[in-house]
């Protein structure tokens, strides 16, 4: 093996993923450049002096590639061996942030190391993914049992809980993506349906007056009972189940949601949710979404052309090079460019799923699905928020948004997967 | 395992595709279907800036600019866009308190509404402007700085002629004539500025700038592809002689009245003085509104252009016209005489005449020179009673038509707004005034310029042009030409108006009579050395209602003239209200104006006359005491008599 690696370093690498990865990072750099560049700027000087985000992103890509090379040269057994250790290390980092972290833009989730800011919440996605893969691939784990499922859920939710304490709700949400992986590994599909129904319930609870909802639920329940009257005559349990569902939904709408809004969620979160739902028109709160939608909407079908956008180039959209980087693509390249851009992501996700399914080892498959799920959640939430489909929760667009922690984490996630894939003939348990 | 879970892989892929499809659908509506976003983006990022061209200049007949263009800035406000600004800081810069700030916003809303721009602080001083410009981005988009063209007047003269520029009012904006203007624009409100607004304003340009989120301009939009350049306003070249105008305003100081001087050969007005006047610089700059109200309420009515808005009985100045009609209708010959012995008794009442010696009206020339009242009221009667009319009604109407063709009783059509028409009674008017029966005796005073006839000084001067030209005139006007202009704006002023085809011999007799007036008659104070001046004095009786009683006031001093007799260059009408005989004040002033124009200087011999005119005060002391004008009046009040004399007679004093 070692001999062969020396002969050809790139032996076994998955070129489609490599190509898509490179394309997205370069598109990201170009978008950050478009957001920041002003006519007359000295680009080379800015790059040399790291004055601008695009220069720093270029540097982070360099660092990421160094990390990627190191990962590529590491034996894949190392990742299975250290998965639990890394997970523990990640949790320690998260707790450390709670203690000595620094506040950046309203979230207490940053560590400062030698002048560089670092967000462990990004890094722990990697650790969690490894640990989950390790646990699910373990011979002792029987994922059909409730106990195993609870442990797997805990693995995903413990870091998420700590991250919520750091006021970085957006990133915490991403940890829900691991349930997609668990579904692939055997979690009953009904749970996805229940989760989906839950979301609908929450949304309707927010949008519709609770008393009206209560009446609607009662009418529906009555109708259901009427149409199922024969079955109900036969079994009392059916009636109890229907009434239980009715009771739960009503209680949720009448008490849980108002309670969550007044007691649990923070003011700004409530406002963002209300803005997203169109319930509140506070111009300050809608500003980000509104400007972002103006930028994307003004792109039209073909876009304004690279560096021609007026909205993204003149600071109308806040967080232009990080969370709202998609605006640049929407404005400069229009609908056509946006669809093509989304196409790149879909290709990447499908390729990763393809890679996952060709693995012989459960560890590699779970890990690869984890990578796909994390990227998918980031993509879906980030773009939805720029086009007003989701509340503004600050999570980056994978590989494209400006941010060292994010770029490094995604690079490492992908390259560990590539390493595992290259060694898929090996038995890794 | 792998085979068993195949459907779950599909489900995950479907979830991904479903989500992406949702996003793509949303994007499709956002980017392709909905068009408002690109408009919103433009509103966000494109700053539409109106570029005001420099307003056209105005030059006098010798090419001297009678005004200058200065640039000042207004702070305008759009009340609906004022949000989250540092009010205290803005107040500090403008040196107003919060109460005043609130008041101005409320005024702006009342005046133009919430979403339209109103002037918040007009014509900022350079100091305030500098400080505002530095921190303007703090107050945008609610507040903007807008460039304004401000006129300034180096001669401090001709205020009522030039007019002033003011902000467009909301009632004007509703009219289609002003559709090219926007709220807050400035335009000519009176005078030449108003009449020639269309050429003076030029064409406004529009510049599109890209701005950032703080409204700071970041450079031209699309490299200026959509910009339109501003085209400067066209310059006006006037017939006005600004030196003559200044002299006239100085001579008329402390008097109420007016001077109109016209070049008979072109109809171009050389000077038009209405006294009291004011410094046109008062109606520019930061204090325009305050000064305007002062001028508006002043007891001496300086905004009232007496030269074309006040009407007077012409008095004896009318007599040459009466003579022309009689000659033309053949009711007399130049040798016709009237045995006047100090009064006219033919109509059953006495009409007084200042002369008693027999033979003072032995022929037309003598009658004009001696201004015999009896002679001219008799001429009027002869005209209207002439047998060929077959009745006084037709005769009077014929007389009215003559007067009308001389330019009396209707607007001449001068190129500044506000001209009055004056009044000449016609047959319909006579029927109304004397229901039932009337005869040539009823209003015979009109023959000597009293009674049911009143004229503006402009009409008097124009009548002089007709006599000077022996039968034609051009509509009096200020603008001789407009630079680079091919519009028809000046067409009517180039058109010769021939009056009633009266024969040259008729004119000659009248003109000789008028020459005699100056040479040896009532107008000797108008003599100019080496120039044949033809003139006619007038002493117009006038009444006013004081404390509910009709009271006879001191006569107006009137003098009309033209010179030289042959090839005339200037025609003048001067009225000094309530000053007495025409020969005492109006005649010397007219002759000084004519001398200045014809010789470009005033002979040293006439220094005492100038001094007397400058020092002479006819304004009612009560009115004068009430007037606040002295502090406002620029051109004439700032200088003492000695200083004015030094200007016109510099050698004598050295």
Automatic annotation (TrEMBL), chain A:
Domain of life: Bacteria
Keyword field contains Transmembrane helix: yes
GO MF assignments: glycosyltransferase activity; lipid-linked peptidoglycan transporter activity
Gene Ontology terms: biological process: cell division; cell wall organization; peptidoglycan biosynthetic process; regulation of cell shape
Signal peptide stretch: none
Topology in membrane: Multi-pass membrane protein
GO cellular component, one term: cell division site
UniProt-annotated location(s): Membrane
UniProt keywords, alphabetically: Cell membrane, Cell shape, Cell wall biogenesis/degradation, Glycosyltransferase, Membrane, Peptidoglycan synthesis, Transferase, Transmembrane, Transmembrane helix
Major location (coarse): membrane
Segments crossing the lipid bilayer: 12-34, 54-73, 85-101, 146-165, 186-206, 212-228, 240-261, 333-354, 366-393, 399-420
InterPro entries: Cell_cycle_FtsW-rel_CS (IPR018365), FtsW/RodA (IPR001182), RodA/MrdB (IPR011923)
Name listed for the protein in its UniProt record: Cell wall polymerase
TrEMBL record, chain B:
PANTHER family tied to this protein: PEPTIDOGLYCAN D,D-TRANSPEPTIDASE, PEPTIDOGLYCAN D,D-TRANSPEPTIDASE MRDA
Domain Penicillin-binding protein dimerisation: residue ranges: 51-217
Protein name per its UniProtKB record: Penicillin-binding protein 2
GO biological process: cell wall organization; peptidoglycan biosynthetic process; proteolysis; regulation of cell shape
Any one GO MF annotation of this record: penicillin binding
Record localization: Cell membrane; Membrane
Keyword set includes Cell wall biogenesis/degradation: yes
Keywords carried by this UniProt record: Carboxypeptidase, Cell inner membrane, Cell membrane, Cell shape, Cell wall biogenesis/degradation, Hydrolase, Membrane, Peptidoglycan synthesis, Protease, Transmembrane, Transmembrane helix
Record keyword Cell wall biogenesis/degradation present: yes
Highest rank taxon of the organism: Bacteria
Limits of the Penicillin-binding protein transpeptidase domain: 257-595
Membrane association type: Single-pass membrane protein
Gene Ontology cellular component terms for the protein in this record: plasma membrane
Organism from which the protein derives: Chitinophaga japonensis
């Amino acid at each position: 093996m070692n001999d062969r690696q020396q002969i050809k370093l790139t032996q076994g690498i998955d070129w489609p993923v490599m190509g898509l990865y490179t394309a997205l990072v370069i598109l990201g750099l170009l978008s950050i450049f478009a957001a920041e560049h002003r006519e007359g700027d000295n680009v080379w000087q800015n790059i040399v002096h790291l004055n601008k985000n695009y220069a720093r992103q270029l540097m982070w890509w360099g660092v990421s590639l160094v990390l990627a090379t190191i990962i590529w040269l590491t034996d894949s057994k190392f990742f299975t061996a250290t998965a639990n250790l890394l997970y523990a290390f990640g949790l320690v980092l998260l707790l450390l942030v709670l203690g000595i972290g620094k506040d950046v833009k309203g979230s207490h989730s940053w560590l400062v190391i030698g002048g560089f800011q670092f967000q462990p919440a990004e890094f722990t996605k990697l650790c969690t993914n490894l640990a989950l893969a390790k646990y699910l691939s373990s011979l002792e784990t029987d994922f059909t049992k409730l106990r195993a499922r609870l442990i797997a859920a805990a693995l995903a939710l413990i870091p998420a809980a700590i991250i919520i304490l750091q006021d970085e709700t957006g990133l915490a949400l991403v940890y829900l993506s691991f349930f997609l992986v668990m579904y692939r590994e055997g979690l009953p599909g009904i749970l996805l349906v229940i989760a989906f129904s839950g979301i609908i319930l929450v949304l309707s609870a927010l949008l519709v007056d609770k008393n009206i909802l209560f009446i609607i639920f009662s009418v529906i329940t009555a109708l259901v009972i009427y149409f199922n009257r024969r079955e109900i005559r036969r079994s009392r349990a059916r009636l109890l189940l229907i009434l239980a569902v009715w009771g739960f939904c009503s209680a949720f709408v009448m008490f849980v949601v108002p309670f969550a809004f007044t007691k649990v969620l923070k003011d700004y979160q409530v406002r963002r949710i209300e803005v997203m739902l169109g319930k509140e028109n506070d111009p300050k709160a809608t500003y980000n979404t509104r400007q972002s939608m103006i930028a994307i909407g003004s792109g039209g079908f073909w876009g304004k052309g690279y560096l021609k956008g007026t909205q993204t180039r003149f600071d109308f959209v806040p967080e232009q090079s990080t969370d709202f980087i998609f605006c640049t693509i929407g404005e400069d390249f229009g609908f056509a460019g946006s669809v093509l851009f989304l196409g790149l992501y879909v290709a990447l996700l499908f390729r990763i799923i393809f890679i996952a399914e060709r693995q012989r080892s459960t560890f590699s498959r779970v890990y690869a699905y984890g990578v796909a799920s994390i990227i998918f959640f980031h993509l879906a939430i980030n773009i939805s928020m720029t086009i007003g489909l989701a509340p503004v929760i600050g999570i980056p667009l994978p590989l494209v948004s400006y941010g060292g922690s994010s770029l490094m984490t995604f690079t490492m996630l992908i390259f560990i997967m590539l390493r595992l894939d290259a060694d898929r003939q090996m038995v890794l348990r | 395992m792998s085979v068993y879970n195949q459907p779950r892989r599909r489900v995950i892929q479907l979830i991904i595709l479903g989500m992406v499809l949702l996003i793509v659908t949303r994007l499709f509506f956002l980017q392709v279907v909905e068009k408002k976003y690109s408009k919103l983006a433009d509103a966000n990022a494109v700053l539409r800036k109106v570029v005001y061209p420099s307003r056209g200049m105005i030059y006098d007949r010798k090419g001297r600019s009678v005004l200058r263009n200065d640039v000042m800035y207004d702070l305008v406000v759009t009340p609906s866009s004022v949000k989250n600004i540092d009010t205290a800081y803005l107040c500090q810069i403008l040196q107003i308190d919060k109460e005043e700030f609130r008041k101005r916003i409320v005024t702006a809303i009342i005046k133009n509404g919430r979403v339209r721009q109103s002037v918040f602080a007009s014509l900022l001083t350079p100091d305030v402007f500098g400080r505002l410009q530095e921190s303007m981005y703090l107050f945008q988009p609610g507040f903007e700085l807008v460039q304004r063209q401000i006129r300034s007047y180096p001669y401090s003269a001709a205020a009522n002629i030039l007019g002033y520029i003011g902000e467009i009012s909301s009632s004007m904006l509703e009219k289609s004539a002003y559709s090219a203007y926007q709220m807050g624009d400035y335009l000519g409100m009176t005078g030449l500025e108003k009449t020639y607004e269309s050429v003076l304003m030029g064409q406004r340009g529009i510049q599109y700038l890209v701005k950032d989120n703080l409204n700071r301009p970041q450079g031209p939009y699309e490299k200026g592809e959509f910009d339109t350049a501003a085209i400067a306003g066209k310059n006006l070249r006037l017939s006005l002689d600004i030196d003559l105008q200044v002299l006239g305003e100085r001579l008329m100081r402390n008097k109420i009245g007016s001077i109109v001087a016209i070049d008979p050969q072109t109809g171009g007005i050389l000077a038009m003085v209405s006294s009291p006047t004011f410094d046109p610089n008062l109606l520019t700059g930061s204090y325009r509104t305050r000064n305007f109200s002062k001028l508006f309420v002043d007891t001496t009515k300086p905004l009232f252009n007496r030269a074309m808005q006040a009407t007077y009985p012409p008095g004896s100045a009318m007599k040459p016209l009466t003579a022309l009609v009689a000659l033309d209708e053949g009711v007399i010959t130049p040798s016709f005489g009237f045995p006047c012995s100090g009064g006219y008794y033919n109509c059953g009442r006495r009409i007084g005449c200042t002369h008693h010696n027999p033979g003072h009206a032995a022929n037309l020339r003598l009658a004009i020179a001696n201004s015999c009242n009896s002679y001219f009221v008799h001429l009027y009667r002869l005209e209207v009673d002439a047998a060929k009319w077959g009745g006084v009604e037709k005769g009077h109407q014929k007389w009215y038509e003559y007067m009308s063709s001389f330019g009396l009783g209707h607007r001449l059509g001068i190129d500044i707004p506000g001209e009055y028409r004056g009044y000449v009674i016609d047959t319909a008017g006579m029927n109304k005034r004397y229901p039932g029966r009337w005869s040539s005796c009823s209003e015979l005073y009109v023959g000597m310029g009293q009674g049911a006839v009143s004229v503006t000084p402009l009409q008097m001067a124009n009548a002089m042009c007709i006599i000077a030209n022996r039968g034609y005139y051009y509509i009096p006007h200020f603008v001789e030409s407009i630079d680079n202009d091919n519009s028809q704006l000046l067409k009517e002023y180039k058109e010769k108006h021939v009056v009633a085809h009266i024969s040259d011999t008729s004119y000659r007799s009248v003109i000789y009579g008028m020459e005699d007036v100056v040479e040896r008659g009532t107008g000797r104070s108008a003599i100019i050395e080496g120039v044949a001046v033809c003139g006619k004095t007038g002493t117009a009786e006038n009444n006013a209602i004081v404390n509910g009683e009709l009271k006879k006031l001191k006569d107006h001093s009137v003098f009309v003239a033209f010179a030289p007799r042959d090839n005339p260059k200037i025609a003048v009408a001067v009225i000094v209200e309530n000053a007495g005989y025409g020969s005492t004040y109006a005649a010397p002033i007219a002759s000084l104006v004519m001398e200045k124009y014809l010789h470009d200087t005033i002979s040293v011999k006439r220094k005492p006359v100038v001094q007397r005119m400058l020092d002479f005060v006819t304004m009612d002391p009560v009115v004068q005491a009430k007037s606040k004008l002295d502090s406002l009046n620029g051109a004439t009040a700032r200088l003492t008599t000695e200083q004015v004399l030094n200007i016109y007679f510099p050698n004598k004093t050295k």
